[in-house]
Amino acid sequence: MEPRYGNRIGDREVFEGEEVLLKSPADGRDIATVVYADAERTNEAVERAREAAAVWKSSTLAVRQALLLRLAERVQSRADTYATLESLNTGKTLRQSNLMDIPLGIENLRYFATTKEFSLEREIEHPEYPGTRGIVQYAPMGVVAAIAPWNVPFLMAVWKLAPALLAGNSVVLKPSHHTPLTALELGRDASEVGFPPGVVNVVTGRGSVVGDALLHNPHVNMVSFTGSTRTGKAILSTAVGLKRFTLELGGKSPNIVFADADLETAAKGVLFGIYLNSGQLCESGSRLVVESSIRESFVGRLMELLGRMRPGNPMDMETDISAITTAEQQRKIATMVDQGVSAGAKVLFRADLANRTPPGGRFYPPTLLADVRPDMEVAREEIFGPVLSVMEFGSESEAVEVANRTDYGLAAGVWSADLEKAQRVASQIDAGTVWINSYHMLSAAAPRGGFKNSGIGRELGLEGLLECTQTRHVFVNPTHADIDDVAYGLILP
Ligand code: NAD
Fold this sequence. Notes:
single chain, alpha/beta, 6-stranded mixed β-sheet, 16 helices, binds nicotinamide-adenine-dinucleotide
């Protein structure tokens, strides 16, 4: 019998709704039943969150951090369960869940549980009014609706919950209906470690139902959305009432490799940048922008290394290639690549997965494309799959120009032994994150987000925390001052 998950609403796990059996994209096996909520249940969760917010907003930072730390410890003690569920539900390799997604999420929880960077207020001076002082307070927004995509469900749940809770908000988290399991587990664990009822609610279901109800609910004060650029743009105009929005959207990120880089490390980094999670990461480095003088040898080395990636069952710790999480995504990748090839792109490499993956699983072979012209859809649009397009440049300024030749601006990589040059280039890339001689290194201390069509606002870091707050300025005039006489004299003779 598969485990059953209801939705966490207030102090209850609610099992009313459409019961759905989830199957693993890794091998097609039944993994769990979940309940897709309707609009009524979603609104009930908002109501519970609203009641809880009224009390939670007065809690001290110490109380919030103590609970977050207990949550981190609780998840740590069950890390194997989380990793297994995450891989079964998404199809990502168990090695990735075990060694990256789950431990990183726990580390990120610990960061918010211990950071001293955020305080509830700061003092300012008013140079115009000597003798007075100001207090800038960071008050919570109230109820935060957090809407998440299917690709990194556990990390996403942590990134949505921890900063919002630390800032004093209550949250209704809506994980993707494809991959809600670890978020639902986290909701259970939040309750287990003592978060007051209603502070953490987790409600899964379709975007058109649960997401839509959240957007239409006037008591939702902030929407923290991560997903596709198309949905992100659409929901901005759907929302009822004035809501704060942060949008973490898609990408088409370049990895720039200069001839003077440590090319062996760069080759591994470029492959890691695109083939981790089978390219289903918003910041995946899907465009290789390589210096012309080393193009042949570098691409040759990439193909050698690619040939070594081991297909298999993602639940096997020896497997390197993750499954494709949804059938729709698998079709989208295949269609985009086929169209690119029809338009003249050349397949330099495509892994042979035939009979090397579980029969019930969904996969797409790691692929390398060349002769991709800028006008092609594969060059412009996010594929969100294991497909790397090769582009080249002759000069530093051309590298920047090619890298910025996209409507997206989420992330980029720059590979060079000349750190001065690498930093000069990084500062000219229109993207929210630029890694130098590295890729996918995520830190909870570092704000993440996008330029251009990749988003609005930031998640994580101090900037991400501040997004979950509204500022209140308190002007304090301790005693009667000369300045009062001047001011009041403006209207009183
Ligand atoms: P999606 O936009 O289809 O869905 C994202 C979330 O929005 C889901 O929970 C979905 O149910 C919900 N949703 C869909 N329609 C809605 C509506 N009308 N109203 C309210 N909610 C709605 O994205 P996806 O396919 O789940 O995820 C893949 C996308 O997410 C990619 O574009 C990827 O780049 C992006 N992504 C971005 C980041 C980032 O940090 N920038 C991280 C991960 C994924």
